[in-house]
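Input:
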Amino acid sequence: MTELDLTLDGRPISARPGQSVGAALTDAGVVAWRTTRRNGRPRGLFCGIGVCFDCLVTVDGVPNQRACLVTARDGMKLETGDE
Amino acid sequence: MTAPDLVVIGAGALGAATAYYATRSGLSVEVLERGAIVSGTTSACEGNLLVSDKEAGPELDLSLYSNQLWNGELAEHGDLWEFEAKGGLVVASSPAGATGLTELATRQRAAGIVVEDVPVDRVPEYEPHLTRDISGAAFYPQDCQVQPMLMAAHLLRMAREAGAVVRTGVTVTGFLRDGDRVTGVRTDQGDVPAGHVVNAAGTWAGQIAELAGVEVPVLPRRGFILITEPLPKTVFHKVYAGEYVASTQSSDESLQTSTVIEGSASGTILIGSSRERVGFDRTVSLPALREIAGKALRLYPSLAGVNVMRSYFGFRPYCPDHLPVIGLDPRAPGLAHAAGHEGAGIGLSVGSAKLLIQQITGAEPELDLAPFAPERFALREAA
Amino acid sequence: MSETYDVAVVGAGPAGLAAAVTAAEQGLRVVLVDAGRQPGGQFWRHPDESVPSTDESRGQHQWRRFTGLRDRLRALESRGSVTRIAGHQVWFLEPVAGAGAYALHLTPTVASEKTPGVPALVTAVRLVLCPGGYDRQLPIPGWDLPGVMAAGGVQALLKGHRSLAGKRAVVAGTGPFLFPVAAGLAEAGAKVVAVCEAGSPAGWARTPGGAVAVPSKALEAFEYAAVFARHRIPLRTRTVITRISGADRVESVRLGRLDSGGRLTGLARADLEVDLVATGWGFTPSMELVTALGAATRVDVDQSLVAVVDAWQRTDVDRVWVAGEATGVGGALLAVAEGELAGFAVGRDAGRPVPDGGTRRLQRVIRRGRAFARAMHRAHPIPAGWRDWLEPETTLCRCEEVTVGEVCAARDTLGATDARTVKLLARPGMGWCQGRVCGFAAAALAVPPGRDLTAADLAPMSRRTLAAPISLADLAGDDHG
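Output:
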């Protein structure tokens, strides 16, 4: 099966077709990609099904996308960030 | 238990401020609230302390009086209720609107308001994300903001700490009378005698007045507000369209919207406003939400992709002449009112309350309350 | 505007799938709106169907029920009897004045995944709401560390993406859902160091209406027992996580013992080292669409706010039915039965002949399923002592980072007497998720300890004027075009 190539802040991340961005990051061992507004705490996946909005990530320049719901695509640029 | 000097009906902004100033004057106070504290319009508004949206006249005088309190004796508590003297930027989107704005500013300056004319090319220094497609702007440094629920809750807390009793879930069902005189209230949980009763029931003040046999024409005017996702600071002042001033004074029945937009301490952007006379209709009106969103985007096109997380609505208490009702009611001695402030109740709450307590305790109010007299409507009809 | 459908079904999980195919097979024109890209909901979440796979059913239960429903759905879709709008959420639901119909305003679940040709608005005469639910959460000190996940999220990664969220896991909370999550983790190669069940459910399966009455449940229990034995997974009952520790991610958990009344009696001597905590305390039904229409609600045995429905799944709002978890958390098979019955009910409402025997059988299945669910909930209550291990600094609202101490101060110092006022004064539930995660705990903390939660307590944390976020541009746009 062809792997998809994504980047997180420029660092290569691979994903299987059909996987979510959140799943690809999980497979890459990344557990946090955002810091909170008030206390600067790290956050990643929590509910995993689109309810909690903890896993927000910037995808191809569009901020605040839920990583657990966005399907990974080849060439996708993910960026960590502050809320 | 001895009867309190004062029973205050309603634990919103007006009731809280009244209880606060009453305890400061040494009065014993009992606040009776039908629901929970701050559960009415206080929890469904924006927390505006505006001078900019008011024409010269008694409401502006009251606004300036309140402004002194917010910035003076209450300033030490400002952090508790997120007080922010952020200033207001009023923008006009047409040459005619710009002329209107200039004329309004002239009248307001004469009444003591600080207004800075902002040349159109300097607007980005105030609001970098605002559309450049505007015809005029004015900056009002005296416009401020509080978090209204925290404000009211802390005033109630300080009143409680000074001995006031706040009872929630208690519904006033009538008044105790001695002849014409009001000597307390009847509630669903027993009678509460009192020296004076203050009707601070907000949009429901007319119904309370009716229980006392007097007419106070406070009616609901529904308004919606949109809340966006939290963002890095994007809107730096209170920004509103020039027609907002006209809409607050309008008596039109149908849906009216005019843009008021500002950032909040939590990073969200609050976007208003709408005005509709639909009674206490609690249906969420999509046309109102759409119109608010559309007009906001005309001022801030760059917010197009920003998500709205929620909306809320409240019922502003308005009187036919758009002035609040503040003062002792000669038709029912012992009864006073502090209600009907429409969209300005948060800002005017402290001034209204302080003046009312001055009147109740027999002192000369620092500002003439005659324009706000509860009996003015009946007198006008008779004339 | 396009056609008005006979019925709109919201949600394509077990209940919604069953409702949609049943209604369509009676000749009704059905639109099926689902937030997911492919049918199945959370229970039958599975890998992307467009990617060839030989093990689609791995980790699934009742999978043939699903493929049966999916086959029927595909046939109905190809005949044009069902229009399926996938990957979209209803952000606003309202009756159309004077038209005897409902308007469902839609937005893509993922903004960047707009499907061409999908309308922003669909209308239907009847509504079947099958919104499902998600793990209920209680705050635990440290639960905001990365590596702490909802049990359902861990399961979704496994079933939907074949991703393993950690290597050394503890699964904790209460309810039978902890078992498949632990089993799934172990089968996928994780070391499950403990399953901590706050209740002491031994024997509940034998109570009247319990698992014995629902043979498939007993069978599942045997399967889990085998998996647990094979992977040497220790099951610790009356055990909770009282603290989660780590610098920037989970490193360890502390366990506590509960007495039979659910109060904390002691702490384990040593912490468990883990890199994944999967936690859940039953489920919270998604109630925003139900409450948006003003349908009557009640508090169920598990303290969830749920819709009140009659023996035909009908609410007290004209032409609105609800099926699945939103009528009471009870699992997939009950949801399928309720969905099917709702499908017949809308058919009956539209004047279609309804098979008497079939619907009576469904009503029997539903009664039995409800009795089973009640027994299950009673065996897996929220432990009475869940506040005992909270600290004032413990995060309650993850979005707004509101602490337990701040919520208690709103109650004790500022005079808040209910959940709505606590929310207004301290902001729990005001952030991105709008109280979906912390709503239950915030409502519970707002009321005096010991008082049972009422619908009035839960409703303010369940009602959302906008059922999903919508961009300002889309909100401003007229979707009637």
